Amino acid sequence: GNSVTQMEGPVTLSEEAFLTINCTYTATGYPSLFWYVQYPGEGLQLLLKATKADDKGSNKGFEATYRKETTSFHLEKGSVQVSDSAVYFCARAIPSGSARQLTFGSGTQLTVLP
Amino acid sequence: DVKVTQSSRYLVKRTGEKVFLECVQDMDHENMFWYRQDPGLGLRLIYFSYDVKMKEKGDIPEGYSVSREKKERFSLILESASTNQTSMYLCASSGQGTANEKLFFGSGTQLSVL
């Protein structure tokens, strides 16, 4: 099936720490992969994406590399800030051509302490 | 600035009431979606629509219906609210083609059914 499994939270880090949030997906073809972020009191917004194997998506210091061999798309940031505190969702596109395109993981709550 | 607007931020209803959640987008998007967000479960798709008057069931449509009479507006209806429908409801929209992989979300409606 089409599913996304991501690291359970919550994750609490100190400012300037290194962040990794794991995400794996079930492979039906080569779907596009995404990370969405939800800041407190807001809806989700696209953080980054990758559309094919070995692509690296990046934005705001965050990176994720599309790894076909491990069916993974782990989110990383070298030095987190308090403003990065949010819920992070991994998602994959369903290659069906339907308007219903995305399957989301369960979300990982990140809290960054000053 | 593009926008998806949900009519209420917080809503409290009683069991058995009929509840309407409204969503409007100003991006002329073809696709609109209703998700519910619950802790540990992430986002689950309730219904989506790919055109005016068209709708398709998502993963958890039971107890819900939708209406799309105009392109910019997508309504979620709880015919007879129950306590297990207490949740955060998120509306989203997307364009056509590859653009449909990027969702734009509203800020959410936190519904409490007592």
Structural commentary:
The complex is a heterodimer of chains A (114) and B (114). With 114 residues, chain A is mainly β. Chain A has no helices and twelve strands. The termini of chain A are far apart. The model of chain A has no long low-confidence stretch (mean pLDDT 90). In chain B, strands 2, 4, 5, 6, 9, 10 and 11 form a seven-stranded mixed beta sheet that branches. Chain B has a four-stranded antiparallel beta sheet with strand order 1-3-8-7, with no helix packed on it. In chain B, β5 (42-51) and β6 (54-57) form a beta hairpin. Chain B is globular and about 40 Å long. Chain B starts with a strand and ends with a strand. The chains are: A mainly beta (114), B mainly beta (114).
How many β-strand stretches of chain A?
12
Range of strand content of chain A: over 45%
Mean pLDDT score of chain B: 92
What's the tally of helices of chain B? 0
Class from secondary-structure proportions of chain A = mainly beta
What string, H for helix and E for strand, traces the elements of chain B in order? EEEEEEEEEEE
Report the total helices of chain A.
Answer: 0
Shape of chain A: globular
End-to-end separation of chain A: 41 Å
Largest sheet of chain B: 7 strands, mixed
Q: Can you give the helix content of chain A as a percent range?
A: under 10%
In brief:
The complex is a heterodimer of chains A (114) and B (114). With 114 residues, chain A is mostly beta strands. Chain A has strands at 4-6, 11-14, 19-21, 23-25, 33-38, 44-50, 56-59, 62-65, 75-77, 86-93, 102-104, 108-113.
